[in-house]
Amino acid sequence: MNRINKKLEENKKLFSIYFTAGYPNLDDTVPLIQNLEKAGVDMLEIGLPFSDPLADGPTIQASSTKALKNGMTSETLFEQLKDIRKSVSIPLIIMGYFNPMLQYGVEKFCAKCAEVGVDGLIIPDLPVDVYNDKYKTIFEKYGLINVFLITPQTSEKRIRFIDSISKGFIYMVSSSSVTGSQSGFGEEQIAYFNRIKEMNLKSPQIIGFGISDNLSFTQATDHAKGAIIGSAFIKYITNFGVKSVDKFVSKILKG
Amino acid sequence: MKYNIDDNGYYGEFGGAYIPEMLYPNVEELRQNYLKVMAEPEFQEEFKQLLQDYVGRPSPLYFAKRLSEKYNTKIYLKREDLNHTGAHKINNTIGQILMAKRLGKNRIIAETGAGQHGVATATVCALMGLECIVYMGEIDIARQAPNVARMKMLGATVIPALSGSRTLKDATNEAIRDWINNPVDTHYIIGSVVGPHPYPDMVARFQSVVSEEIQWQLKEKEGKTNPDYVIACVGGGSNAAGAYYHFLEDENVKLIAVEAAGLGIDTGESAATSVLGKEGIIHGSKTLLMQTQDGQITEPYSISAGLDYPGVGPMHAHLYKSGRAEFISITDDEAMKAGLELSELEGIIPAIESSHALAVFEKKKFEKEDILVLSLSGRGDKDLDTYIKYFEL
Ligand SMILES: Cc1ncc(COP(=O)(O)O)c(C=O)c1O
Questions:
Q1: Which residues on B lie below 8 Å from A177 (Cβ)?
Q2: Which residues does UniProt assign to the signal peptide (chain B) (predicted)?
Q3: Which of A135, B77, B313, B337 is deepest in the core (most CB within 10 A)?
Q4: Which pTM does this prediction carry?
Q5: Does the pLDDT value for residue A111 go beyond 70?
Q6: Of the options 3.40.50.300, 3.40.50.880, 3.20.20.70, 2.60.40.10, the CATH number for the domain spanning A14-254
């Protein structure tokens, strides 16, 4: 069974963190993963940096630019991750834009993911229908879970379709925005969380975008299986480095 | 329909809509409505009326006698430079602003490089009384000050794109991010035949008025609708798409696409996408783009801001790959020389983008009887500073 599915079966709310691979320094990737697992994080999204991250706000853009300057590439990331399963057991997901994967070769990319022990992918600009028609069989051949996004604007019909082809969780984007542009949730978002909850989807939902502190984390996990923090974490390591990430994690969990 | 778009939004293997889910509702709304709206007689009537009375169409098809004599062939210039705001860009913004109104949008966003599309968008927003926000790279804002001032006079808000290389590609990213953040009330007026389906097709259709006019104008002058060659510069590809449109399926009409070689193909300072690019995804479209081996989009360079884009539209990727169009690249120097030549021979100062197309006559030999139509996509007013510096005028 895929590590993501196993994790989703655990009877607890999940805390997931996104970070950009190769940021702040090229070799921070592996120590960060290890430290975050030790700190009690349930799942990680490793951002493969892209020159033109359309769905990301300024924080993740800046970290991507820096990571690319540091020399991060698909090849380098796989090299860094080659022994990761000797020390880390939480689910690992690569989040990246489609063009670098296309250039690497989609099948070769999937094979590499499987080889190093990556469990799933999030590719914001690979549309659900293109995935379904062209790439699904490749992902499944390598046991990878592809995670799809929904937003407050996604129609009920489309949510049902996305649910039907999801093999892991649904990434519920908290508001109509790029990453990092929210702080805390208002009535409108809570109503949206409730609306999705009442749809009784087969796939659990994990909420991301705009979660930055204990309050927003608690609001999100009250309404979903888990929550993902990205920009707030990037800001934290920008200011405090990668050593004390346990402090960040406990502040989110305990307030 | 071998060269035009298919029912799935692809030109051959190029096109599609590779967009984040956050954009899906906006793009899908447009996809479901654009053909229906464009087919409405009232829409067509309003579009045509504005093109005539406001833009000044039809633009003349001018026989360039002295230029023809020099190159010993028959050259017609399609005078898009005479349009209101000085380029072909306004054909598209008129169409899209009417589309936006039909879709009930009250906030307009756009990207711009040189500022031509930004000005054309700000113009139609003023005309319709809609809010207008234009994203422009910080570097382009500095080098295109007059167009920034024009946009401001027209009531637009110009927001500097501070990410990445701070030029056109980044302005496009910022416009797309804005659209993600404002999914309900906003329409994004893309300035070329780029972006996710249905944009390339919609923009090409709005620009197709150019080849439609060429057909009847040429009939009047030459007794036949179709020329032997159509020549156009390609940034994203909208003036070329408009000039080619009605000739796409007639293979007797040879198509020439002119790209900016910048300082030279091998210098690392170039924007010749067909030579330097590879298949991939940029701004939601599968097409040819300049990128690193690792799939990171690279920085193009051209003296002409309008050609300074690391991709081409999917129609052009298909025309290139299928061999339907011949692609020629022209350096900064060759273009500047051709711009000066047109000024001296015909009394027309062209936009530097269009000068690239004009430079083809030095590169390629045509027959005396050949009938050539060249898309003179814009006038050179905006480029005066660059001409002055280059020629030390
Ligand atoms: C006068 C002129 N010609 C050509 C272009 C290139 O765009 P496209 O290839 O979409 O026609 C521009 C873009 O700004 C322009 O201003």
A1: 22, 180-181
A2: none
A3: B313
A4: 0.97
A5: yes
A6: 3.20.20.70
